[in-house]
Design brief:
Rossmann fold; binds S-adenosylmethionine; alpha/beta
Length: 198
């Protein structure tokens, strides 16, 4: 990233912190939003190895954890560059879960994961960093693991990173609609091509 983009990135981080402080993102806990979290959990059940280790990039204040219910997992790591959201997530004391205040761009996983999630987060990664971030995450996805991406509305400029990625094979894709015409999400599930070949 050049200096100007670094500055914009820093400003965006500050904005997220302010918004989490004000409760701007409490709306993610609404019943309308719940549908997309439940779809992700449904995909965990269908396609992830049993008792998975999960990595949630751009996890916010842990809404996915709140929605997990009795889903069985071995370990959950949430990463978000908003310190405020991470403090909120930590305060909820989810079992078998850790939260890190780190930028996805700089984050280096210390282990592999069976499920990696970009839940309404991938489009916020700066353009020049999208491929390196995705590549690094794929290096830390277990061979039989899954990558799940949820993107609001059309996800212009995002889906091609997954759909046209030679390392990935799409195994499921769905549009989650709501009563509001303009409120919908697309959710895709991917496996590494190496695994499908073996
Ligand atoms: C719309 S919120 C979604 C939060 C959560 N995934 C959910 O669906 O409940 C987007 C999140 O991405 C985080 N984010 C944006 N850019 C990021 C980056 N470069 N590294 C880590 N987190 C980032 C924001 O702080 C915010 O928490």
């Amino acid at each position: 990233m050049n200096l100007l983009n670094k500055f914009h990135h820093w400003r965006r981080k500050r904005r997220w912190n302010k918004q989490y402080k004000r409760g701007r993102w409490d709306s993610l806990k609404s019943d309308m939003e719940a549908k997309r979290y439940y779809k992700i959990i449904d995909y965990f059940n269908q396609f992830a190895p049993e008792n998975p280790a999960i990595l949630d990039i751009g996890c916010g204040d842990g809404v996915l954890n709140e929605r997990l219910g009795d889903f069985k997992y071995d370990y959950f790591l949430g990463v978000d560059f908003s310190r405020v959201s991470i403090e909120k997530a930590k305060a909820k004391q989810f079992p078998k879960a850790e939260f890190l205040a780190e930028d996805a761009i700089k984050f280096r996983p210390k282990r592999d994961f069976d499920a990696i999630v970009f839940n309404e987060a991938f489009y916020y990664i700066p353009e020049s960093e999208k491929t390196p971030v995705l590549d690094l995450m794929l290096d830390h996805l277990t061979n039989d693991g899954i990558l799940i991406t949820s993107i609001f509305r059309e996800g212009t400029g995002c889906w091609e990173y997954f759909k046209e990625n030679p390392r990935l094979k799409e195994i499921a894709f769905e549009t989650i609609t709501t009563k509001k015409e303009q409120t919908y999400w697309k959710i895709g599930v991917y496996k590494k091509v190496e695994e499908l070949r073996s």
